[in-house]
Amino acid sequence: MAFENVLHAVRKQKPLVQCITNIVTVNDCANIILASGGSPTMASHPLEVEEAVHNVQALVCNMGAIDKADSMILAGREANRLGTPVILDPVGAGGTRLRRDAVKRLLDEVHFAVIRGNASEIRYLAGQQTTGSGVDVSDLDEINEENLSAAVSMAAALAKRLETVIAISGKIDVISNGKETCVLRNGCATMARITGSGCMLTALIGVFCGAYEDSFVAACSAMAAMGISGEIAEEKRLRNGTGNATFRNDLIDAVFNLTEEQMKQGVHYEIYKR
Q1: Are 175 and 6 in contact (CB under 8 A)?
Q2: Which of 220, 218, 228, 217 is nearest to 256 (CA)?
Q3: Which partner from 77, 90, 158, 180 sits 20 to 30 angstroms from 169, CA to CA?
Q4: Number of domains in the chain
Q5: CATH no. for residue 232?
Q6: With the CA atoms of 198, 200, 204 and 210 taken in that order, what torsion angle do they form, in degrees rounded to the nearest 10?
Q7: Among 139, 141, 160, 161, which Cα is nearest to 151's?
Q8: 191-222: buried (b, 16+ CB within 10 Å) or exposed (e) per residue?
Q9: Domain hosting residue 222, numbered range
Q10: What strand order describes the sheet that includes 180-184?
């Protein structure tokens, strides 16, 4: 898989990405989009989202902004009509009745090119029992070598059922379009120690989907870029003895400075076909 080609497309096309996301991570999402080579717009008011989506190359809907679910549906429907890819981050899906109802509405009314979540969130969407709490993945749900085969099958089946790309992020990333499944082994543990790494990843997927037509390849490439950048930031953190606050900035810097050669040489992945 030519991950570096997607990064090249992002830098060349500079896609405009509309993010309806939460107040905790809105600044980080905007900055990661800028760092990658894209341009962000954070329009989320229900009276403007349908108009705003006409100007963008991708739409990101983040359920951390649960109060903006109506805006997501309005923008998502219009993006579908226009043929613009829509990416969903089902933050806390299954955690409360409000979120269960919201994710059902979103899936019923909008077609998503990519759905990116942690293992607990995706397990809920797949109808499996989950032990996740809030927005964090449960240790029992986390993908590891022992349950990897089952996770690959789950992701592929859900992708096929929803006619989308399912992207599960964690210590091991699993991305599937129902026919092909990519397993990525990049990143570092410190990425889980900062607020918004998942939200930033979903925003990055939006940028890559906005520049590359194949949503599966775009999602794989975005997650590879984030993982490699995390490794670069972690190497710097260990060298300088800094903490998670500096790591957050170094992560964004690593995305900004990421080269096509680093993408080509740094990604560790396997492809499974059904």
Answers
A1: no
A2: 228
A3: 77
A4: 1
A5: 3.40.1190.20
A6: 100
A7: 141
A8: bbebebbbbbbbbbbbbbbbbbeebbbbbbbb
A9: 3-273
A10: 39-41, 16-20, 58-62, 86-89, 114-118, 165-169, 173-176, 180-184, 269-273
168 three-class SS: strand
- How far apart, in whole angstroms, are the C-alpha atoms of residue 258 and residue 252? 10
Q: What is the DSSP string of 209-257?
A: HHH-S-HHHHHHHHHHHHHHHHHHHHHHHHHHT--HHHHHHHHHHHHHH
**pTM of the predicted model as reported, rounded to 2 decimal places:** 0.96
pLDDT in tens, the chain (274 residues): 899 999 999 999 999 999 999 999 999 999 999 999 999 999 999 999 999 999 999 999 999 999 999 999 999 999 999 999 999 999 999 889 999 999 999 999 999 999 999 999 999 999 987 665 555 555 668 899 999 999 999 999 999 999 999 999 999 999 999 999 999 999 999 999 999 999 999 999 999 999 999 999 999 999 999 999 999 999 999 999 999 999 999 999 999 999 999 999 999 999 999 7
Calculate helix-pair angle for 215-240, 244-257, nearest 10 degrees. Answer: 130
User: What count of residues does the chain have?
Assistant: 274
